[in-house]
Specification:
The protein is mostly helical and 302 residues long. 70% of the residues lie in helices and 0% in strands. It is built from twelve helices and no strands. Helix 4 crosses helix 8, helix 6 packs antiparallel against helix 7 and helix 11 packs antiparallel against helix 12. 35% of the residues are buried.
Length: 302
């Protein structure tokens, strides 16, 4: 009895095209030095935040186990000094990155998901339902999102989940507007009419044509929106609307302000978390701008 030889499976042409497109996009991205620098910074910060429990001792952020003095300046033992409880500011910055990045990414994904669904539905279906959703979008768009987030956080109560929900449900209108405009552009293309003529339903058109056409814009908008979400989280935490137990960059700034670090001249307690926020937001912006130029040929440098 002969055993049939295994048949080598060749990749489908669609996957081959996708891999080739991904290689071209990565090659185009690497041409933007600012984008590569931003990506390297983000990967470093994410790695430090993820590995914080492994490379540091969690007991160092416990107030009852702090061994330093109150607001000690930077030294060989404490590279960035200590806080009002004697904890290492460097250790607090590393652990604070976990909450700040988690809240920023989670809130952004929530807002982008809501905006994408609303934008695609209003752009594809139209009618009175679309008009009603757009009026609701305009209502949220003209109101200050930060004020709405503060009001929502006050009603629900302080906490990390509250901040994620408050930022996510108040910052989706801009994404909805962008996705709707892109959806209308895709819907006007000839192959959409051919798909309808061949019997394609709403789910087929949205899943096979509209969604792939708007995903690049959604991806870029997500990268750019993370920085805004991190700033919003820091603002809400600074105002005391975050989890009082969790450590984030915003809560560090609040603690520094309440402990008298400003009047005491303890710059080492204020500068590191503020600088971390600025660096991460700038890194996300650089990556987003680079990806925007890669996915939009009209923005590429000539």
């Amino acid at each position: 009895m002969t055993v049939p030889e295994p048949v080598e499976r060749t990749p489908s042409p669609a996957w081959a095209r996708r891999r080739a497109a991904a290689r071209r996009a990565w090659g185009e991205f690497t041409r933007h030095r600012a984008g590569v620098f931003g990506l390297a910074v983000l990967l470093l910060v994410i790695a430090l935040a993820a590995l914080a429990p492994l490379i540091t001792d969690a007991d160092g952020i416990d107030v009852t186990r702090a061994t330093g003095g109150r607001l000690e300046p930077p030294s060989g033992r404490y590279w960035l000094g200590t806080d009002e409880s004697g904890r290492s500011v460097l250790l607090l910055v590393l652990w604070g990155a976990r909450i700040s990045l988690l809240v920023g990414l989670s809130a952004t994904l929530l807002s982008i998901a809501i905006g994408t669904v609303v934008g695609i539905l209003t752009g594809h279906f139209g009618g009175w339902g679309s008009a009603l959703l757009m009026r609701l979008t305009d209502f949220f768009l003209v109101l200050p999102s930060l004020v709405l987030a503060i009001a929502l956080s006050t009603v629900i109560g302080p906490g990390v989940g509250t901040i994620v929900l408050a930022i996510g449900v108040t910052s989706w209108p801009s994404a909805a507007r962008l996705v709707r405009a892109q959806t209308l552009g895709v819907e006007a293309r000839p192959y959409i009419e051919r798909s309808r003529a061949l019997g394609g339903g709403h789910l087929h058109i949205i899943g096979k044509h509209v969604l792939p056409g708007v995903l690049p814009l959604v991806f870029v908008n997500t990268t750019l929106a993370v920085g805004t979400a991190i700033v919003a989280e820091s603002t809400l935490a600074f105002l005391g609307l975050g989890d009082p137990v969790a450590i984030s960059w915003g809560s560090m700034l609040r603690s520094a302000s309440n402990s008298g670090a400003v009047t005491a001249g303890a710059w080492w307690y204020l500068v590191p978390p503020g600088l971390a926020i600025a660096v991460v937001v700038l890194a996300f912006t650089l990556c987003g701008r680079a990806m925007e130029s890669v996915l939009n040929p009209r923005l590429r440098e000539r």
